[in-house]
């Protein structure tokens, strides 16, 4: 494995079981989506990191005009590691603006804030990301 700080990234094989319900509503300008989910990861060779997660994704898109889109996204998850006796609660928020300039060219700017509160020492985080991109599509 690769050691990154106190975390080891390795080629662990796991079986994922996942169930998700999705609801979406769309009008000419507005799109709304809601998707609660349940997932369970069972590691094949080492059950230390077996985990059960419950969460939901919520998305909202608003078209100011046909080429200018404002998007907002929220994800919340409660992740339990039974073997480690650990519980993580993670929330992510993202806001983005996308402008389609031509048939092939667009740009996108987004801001993401993520918070994880963990009862394991050193595993909580607060993160901000800003993304600026130019997109070419054929």
Structural class: mainly beta
DSSP, total strands: 10
Low-confidence sequence ranges: none
| Largest pleated sheet | 8 strands, antiparallel
Helical amount = under 10%
Shape: elongated
Oligomer: single chain
Q: Ends: how far apart?
A: 39 Å
Q: Helix-strand pattern, N to C?
A: EEEEEEEEEE
What is the average of the pLDDT values? Answer: 93
Number of helices: 0
Strand-residue fraction? over 45%
Radius of gyration: 19 Å
Structural write-up:
It is a single chain. With 138 residues, the chain is an all-beta fold. The protein has no helices and ten strands. The strands form two sheets. Strands 3, 4, 5, 6, 7, 8, 9 and 10 form an eight-stranded antiparallel β-sheet that branches. The mean pLDDT is 93.
Summarize the structure.
It is built from no helices and ten strands. The chain is mainly β and 138 residues long.
Helix and strand arrangement:
Elements: E1 2-4, E2 7-9, E3 14-20, E4 23-26, E5 30-43, E6 51-65, E7 68-81, E8 86-100, E9 105-118, E10 125-136
Antiparallel strand pairs: 1-2, 3-5, 4-5, 5-6, 6-7, 7-8, 8-9, 9-10
Which labels suit this protein?
single chain, 138 residues
């Amino acid at each position: 494995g690769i050691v990154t700080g106190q975390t080891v990234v390795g080629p662990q094989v796991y079986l994922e079981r996942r169930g998700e319900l999705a609801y979406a509503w769309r009008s000419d300008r507005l799109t709304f989506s809601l998707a609660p989910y349940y997932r369970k990861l069972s590691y094949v060779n080492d059950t230390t990191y077996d985990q059960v997660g419950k969460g939901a994704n919520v998305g909202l898109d608003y078209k100011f005009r046909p080429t200018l889109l404002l998007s907002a996204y929220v994800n919340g998850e409660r992740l339990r590691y039974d073997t480690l006796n650990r519980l993580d609660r993670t929330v992510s928020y993202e806001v983005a603006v996308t402008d389609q300039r031509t048939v092939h060219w667009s740009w996108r700017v987004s801001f993401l804030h993520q918070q994880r509160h963990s009862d394991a020492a050193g595993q909580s985080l607060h993160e901000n990301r800003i993304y600026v991109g130019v997109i070419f599509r054929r």
